[in-house]
Amino acid sequence: MELPDLGDMTMQQIPLVATAAQSLNVVLSQQLIRLDLRQRATGLFMDVWCNGTQVLCAVACLDRNPVVRDAYFGVPGDLMFADQQGTSDPSWDGLGTRYLLLWDGGGTDDG
């Protein structure tokens, strides 16, 4: 699947499965990142852990909106969802296909 054109950003897709709640670990720029996703009646939400410490809790997952937003949290780069069929906010049933989770390393080397 082709990643969306988001200007000068170089994106890496983080694989997800279409389930209403999931947790996954991924190494981004030598940092162990855990992502907990859960669908609620009001939308999809994400908790972010960096090297075993929770740094973000219940962040609303919105189409083409940064999740982390601030280097202060210690997460390298930023995460965002991108709708492949329009501009809808993500829901669990399209994760990994219609709704891609993308990481922009901000010029870092994911080594």
Weakly predicted, low-confidence segments: none
* Tally of individual domains: 1
| Category from helices, strands and their pairing | mainly beta
Q: Which value, in Å, is the CA radius of gyration?
A: 13 Å
- Average pLDDT, rounded to a whole number, is 89
Given the C-alpha coordinates, what overall shape results?
A: globular
How do the strands and helices of this protein lay out in sequence?
Blueprint: E1 11-14, E2 21-28, E3 31-40, E4 43-50, E5 53-60, E6 78-83, E7 99-104
Antiparallel strand pairs: 1-7, 2-3, 3-4, 4-5, 6-7
Question: Could you characterize what this model shows?
Answer:
With 111 residues, this protein is mainly β. It has one domain. Helices cover 0% and strands 45% of the residues. β4 and β5 form a beta hairpin. The mean pLDDT is 89.
Key attributes of the depicted protein:
single chain, 0% helix, four-stranded antiparallel beta sheet, three-stranded antiparallel beta sheet, mainly beta, 111 residues
